[in-house]
Protein 1
Amino acid sequence: MFRSLSIFNYRVWFIGALVSNVGAWMQATAQNWVVLTQLTDNDAAAMGVTMALQFAPPLLLVGVTGWVADRFDRRKLIMCTQGALLALAVSLGILLLVGAMTLPLMYGFALALGMATAFDNPARQAFVSDLVSQENASNAVALNAASFNTARLIGPAVAGVMIVLVGTGWVFLVNAVTFLAMLGALLMMRPHELVARARRNGPARLADGFRYVARRPDLVVIFVMVFLLGAFGMNFPIFASTMALEFGRGADGFGLLSSFVAIGSLAGALLAARRDRARMRVVVVGTGGFAVASALSVLAPSYATYAATLVLTGFCVVTTLTTANGYVQTTTDPSLRGRVIALYMAILLGGTPVGAPIVGAVATEFGPRTAIGLAAAVALLACGVGVAWTLASGRVHRHETKRFRLTVDETRPIRTIPPEPEDFSDEIAGTTPIPLPPGERAPRPVHRPRHGT
């Protein structure tokens, strides 16, 4: 499981990225809390606008930023973007410490953070693939997922405690220090050991992906479900922060709730790695499970019971997204797989700028439970889309021998080859199964999949 860590360049990158990711989750937690409690009077709509401003640039600038990542030295480009993010974190921390931060200023910083991230993400995706050979790519993706989910578990909880003890400004400054770990890793690398790999043009990839997906109704259904879940369901900062306030908790309570989501996410990623195939039915069931978990959150009578529902929520979200990710990869023509995955990530990222302001406004006007109820209703709608298509496609049949049992035909890959994810973004890391070492897996029989229609 850890063979990629034997490569020096990847090993120093992994350590630097883990430290930096912890800092990033700390800053995200502090930023949401500042907007909700310091710059506004518990206005979740303002938090939704902040999230939209920060997530929109990576989607809107995908063509330009991909070209820049291909045109310039990626290692030096990442140093520039990480330096810019460091400077923004320092500026935010200082302005908060001296009491000069305002909501319009925070909106400006959110947009600036989004712009820097827009150039940072594609450069990192391309660069990390240069650190390992092709045969180690899947292992590196799994380690990336482990790093991402570990940071997601630690960062929010640490940030919540720090906010209570020393204030929000210091959290941003601590995050600025964590960027030094990434910059140090980049400086320590051995450039002559990098495995340069060319990447196709971003806009062309998306256009080809659109044409292919348009001829695959099952992928269209997957993309619709993922978009609805991403737009209205995955606004955890809004849900957790406003519910923490409803239960009379402070920043530490908010940070702890975020870590509970991460516990469920980590469990979902580990369990996903044990499945031999990615099946459409798991995506549908996972989406329905998210609707149930959100409904339980609406009814939670106490902070502890709400935290427990978040574990189930995180589990269902990651189960849905890892399966959708795997389904898209293993049932797509290998020659077009990268382009379709690029489109998939654009759909997933594009939901936040659309849904976050709406969910935030609902939480402000009608309360957080109503906003979570909206997420449950939309998830149920997404599940209904999947169920309706499965029934309409003629894939459901009565079992040949068992009277009350149904069978569902599977979609076969066009070519049966192992999927090789080529992107190393945080979004891919958050939706990638984490395989356990071979010795920790229970043996299980292998069944031949049925041919689909």
Note: The two ends are 36 Å apart (CA to CA).
Protein 2
Amino acid sequence: MTVAASPNHIADSVIRDFTSFTTQVRYTDVGDAAVSAAKRCLVDALGCALGAQETDVMRALRTVASTATSSRAATVFGTTIRTTPDLAAFVNGSAIRCLDFNDDYFGTDESNAKGDTGPHPSDNLGGVLAAAQVSGATGADALLGVIIAYEVCGQLVDEVVLRGNGWDHPTFHSIATSAAAARLLGLSRAQTADAIRIASVANICLFETRVGSISNWKGLAGPNGSRNGLFAAMLAEAGITGPEMAFEGARGFMRQLDHRFSLGPFGGKGRPFRVENTYFKHLPLRYELQLPVQLALKLREVVDPREIASLKVYLEHKSVASREAEPALWRPSGRETADHSGPYLIAAALVDGGITEATFEPGRYLDPKLLSVTDTIELIEDTTYTASFPWQMACRFEVRTEDGRSLTIRGENPKGHPQNPMSDAELTAKFLGQVEPRLGEDRARELLRALWSLEHESSLDRLFNLMTPGR
């Protein structure tokens, strides 16, 4: 077996910085704002997870999880299934991600990558909570794990141009979860470095997952990254080492991406943690399309969608697509494409007056009358919007009606953006709207109280029990 690098000297600066942060940060040092933000993320994520339990995808994944057992078992959300920690991480993370209603992070006005990619940081929570459960962590320990995962993931979002180089963001989740899991499992500095190294070199992912007619894997890729991050930490715990120069080596992460970078300042010592700038969703669809859908609902108040001759939608560069390049966005054939299709979602909001689960049923996204409105929509880049993205998200509609009228509507920062935040009360309402139908009002509210006071829980046992109907 290869001899591990010295625990006191880590040559790769990215591995060194992530390891130092992960092993040195303390719950007592992170501050009330970060703890509150971590609880907000858990409330949002577990509401999404429980709301997705009866989908076909989650039924299939629970079947897979139930085939495995472990002497170090973790629980599948909302069930009595006990499976391997990595499978629990995958299934639970997939439940959080399934309805595309969970949080996002694109960075701030200080981010060097300028919102190149926007992974869902709560995709990490399947792995974080599995590690917390099997390690016997307290609620405060689990919250610190959340803060670590969001900080590491956010650092990568802020500094790494990934999507622009043809790669996909689940690799960020592998790295972030490996760090958080290493901390929760009590790994040494040397083991933590190896966990991050293994997660980094083994999990580079392809952006093909998110183009064309999109498959189920779109919603599962991020949670699979978290699963692999937890597995990397478990390997390091057992003494397995990883390549020393995972990021900066001659064939490392930076070389493969053709992009060199260094990490920015970490949260702490008066600087906000990245979890404090989480982007929450008020609609179950791609984050960059939250604002266009809001504007469509506003437009519907003054224009009958049947009267629209053309609708030009001005956005930042990454949200623009043409019908010639991506025809599936104008004719979605499945939920995964529909909830990422700007033309379809704008048309659905105009015609139906909202976005609900019914929006993603075949009878809706194949409806010729709705698709006739989709055909009027063109997506166009406004370079000033690209320049201000992501800390200022902007959108403009220029409408021409069949009788020759013209109308312009503008908006900035959708509800849930860090500069237009959802309140605790709004996140509570979102949670209860998804969880009460499954658990009933009393149990849903008891679970909510446990989440809002998680730092006082001696373990996660009560949390997992409350998520299961009838327990």
Note: The beta strands are 74-75, 82-83, 167-168, 205-206, 308-315, 377-381, 394-401, 406-412.
Protein 3
Amino acid sequence: MKRPTPADACEVSTMGKMEKVPTGIPGFDEAIGGGFTPGTVVLVAGNPGSGKTTFAAKFVYEGAKRFGEPGVYISLHEPREEFYMYMKDLGMDFRELEERRVFKYIELLPPLGTESIDVLADKLVKAVVSLNAKRVVIDSITPFIRELGEAKARTLIRNVLKTISKGLGAVTLLIAELPYGAQVIGLGIEEFMVDAVVVLYQRRGKAWTIPVRYLEIRKMRGRPVEQVVYQFVIGPPEGFTVLNPVPLEVRANVDYRELLKTYISELDEVLGGGLYRGSVTLLQGHVGTGKTLLSLIIAAENAMRGKKVLYISFEEPTEQLQQTLETLSYPVDKLRPYLQILFVDPKSITPSAIVSKFVRRDTLPDLVIFDGISSIRRVIGRELYVHTIRDLCKILKAYGITTIFTTDEKPGKDPAVSAIADNIIWLRFRKVKRGLVRTLMVLKNKLRWSDPIEYLLYFSDRKLHLRKLEV
């Protein structure tokens, strides 16, 4: 069965006679139905540091880089070299575009008096015409609005910017500052004068060390837009990524004909041959019961056989996990092409960013292991934790990726998470005559019948084994 791949970025399309120009911003084109209409004037408003400049830069960059549409960026506050340096860190090389003569960055002094309209219009027209630009950004329009007042601001937007945009068929983004706590953008007229309005803002959670970023599409003239609040992330390699909500009707791609083995022979026998491709397994147990060891062995054994495995730990550093594999005599260096081990601090990444890592991967792994998801719950709270795990499961199931979660929760303590899993394996300490031993029990095997028998989990010849526990 061919595994589904993430959808490519929207291409230029038509709806009736209305041409759509894709922005190239991952996730955003899907949210607005394919892209902007040529000649559109878009207001992009947001709090300081909310990502307005990065959003606009990504729009211009993708136009010149991917869609053959030259762009002009007019800035009233950021020197050219600083802009180039910051954007290159986010994966956008504007200097290369400038050398190819498909991009121009213009530094403009803040406006002083009505003559500033003429200066802006003159520089804008010359730059757009010289490049045959189809994407324009003015960052920001706020100083002009404040300087000119309501009547002249209307003149600037309606008679100058909209006329230029529609006459040249260019999409123009106007950046506007939205102070914290403000409900109205600028003078309150801007939203009525433009064709589309996009608002960005950020909120900082109590436990996260980075802000959660949100995007709203408040207006899109000529087409319906869902009233949805989208989360987005800023960072390389994409620069700016809008995270579309996972639809409730997303279809799982579980393949009942294909099994992914754990390569622990007795466990595979108990499971009926292994884990169905696209299934979700919850590995539960207290600290020290062997969850990480078991999941590492499953990861390494699959990587040894050419399966692509992504192992994300929320508790142990990458180096420590690699040392554990070396202790178990696994050739870590030889496994690198197939096994990627990452440590993620749950306090330094939002749940939406965790989800985004799997939405747009070019090469999908066969197996993903999330080790220590209880750490996420302790940081973000139970409600958002459940929502995050559900979204991860939907996405990974839709792509047919087999997934294992490890948690220190007791079975049945969090029924909302247990209900998501196809399989539940419980590890625990059991007191017997000779002392404490580790045991394993398959509590849930959704896709096949399995008796809840308790097995002794033990090491022999550097391998994990199971045998029925005799009490």
Note: Residues 200 and 215 are 5 Å apart (CA to CA).
Protein 4
Amino acid sequence: MLLAISFIGSTLRTTYIRDRNISLLTQVNILSNQITPNFYGIQLENTRTYLQDLIKGYSLDINARILLLDNNGTVLIDSYDAMLGQNFNALTEVKSALEGYDSNQVYSLPSGENVMYVGVPISDRNEVMGVVLASSSIDDLLQNVNLTLKRVALLSGIGLLFTGMVAFLFAQVIASPIEKMIQLVRSFSRGNFGVSIKIEANDEIGQLAESFNDMASKINQVDEQRRKFVSNVSHELRTPLTSMKIISETLLHQPSWDESVYREFMQDIDGEVSRLNRIVDSLLYLVDLERDELVLETQITYLNYVVQNVVRNLKPLADQKHIHIDVEERDRLQFHMDQGKIQQCLINLVSNAIKYTPENGKIRISIYRETTDACITITDTGIGIPEKDLSHIFDRFYRVDRARARTTGGSGLGLSIAKQIVTLHGGDIQVSSAINTGSTFTVRLPIRYSGVGA
């Protein structure tokens, strides 16, 4: 009987400690993922304050002391503000974390308190930048185990055999989902964010499994946003780089040019480099993985000038296919807009028109005012878009013809980016098309003289 009680006690302790370990490890991993994008800027006051508030908030939520260490094991932030500057590189959990592994251990302190330590690396591109070290008392857990043992002892009179069977079944029921969760947490820590746990239970383990699934789903969404963010950046930069390459090749392949022509081409290249710098600078602010919205920097700008600049930049691409671009300026329109973003929007639309218009085709761009809107229509004599696809062409990564998209180099992001830019300006894009006749894209932008938010 004593052996059975001892076995139950050992099983309960192991199970509860595993449960607490998974819970603490999961929470610290979430915290580590939130700290990673901001760790490089920890020397900045705003970033350090944000990380302090984040760590102290987590400390209260999970009832644990949390230390943020650099890659030398020195404390940068302490949720209790008592160990700043101390070094823990000799601690086993810190050593393992600095090697890139999660680790945990239970210690019995001289005071008699039992404490669980968990160390999780903060890494970026397989480089360990620091460590999140958390410590949590498990005395309440052990007290619950002892209370359970007392209750089991009251029922031990039923018989040693029955007690052994109950203990065995209890261990199987509890340990099996815990082992399953441990395997999935390990898979999760390796970057497989698409995992989920299927445990049908109404107890704490079931709740923990549900919490893990929610966390995995959210982090998976963040990872998908990050991937889409990288794709958007690549597409934003591709077209201006192509224009600069064509201009530079034109200069290199011609034995001599007039100085005025050189200056004009170099001014075009300089303008494209400046625009690329503005795009990169804007994208650097999009570090929040839950948002992929474009940032507007508005100023009073002539829309006619923006259209002329787009045509001038894309003319080499059109000339390669002997496509004539005609610009009709019915009105001269000046209002608040983000010039770089609107130019990127029009580049996406016009380059698409060039891409899907056969050789010797025509593209007509009209600029006019309609009540309180500035309108730009881009009409081509291209291959057209099937009616069934018109409602989807602004969806990200949507392609009308994937085979043709491969030959033209399309990524399925250009129209989506254009739509997002116009929407952020409070405008709209409409499209009409006929197969083998051509397409017309109409961009409407509200004319405002005191900012986009006016």
Note: Confidence is low (pLDDT under 50) at residues 282-290, 402-407.
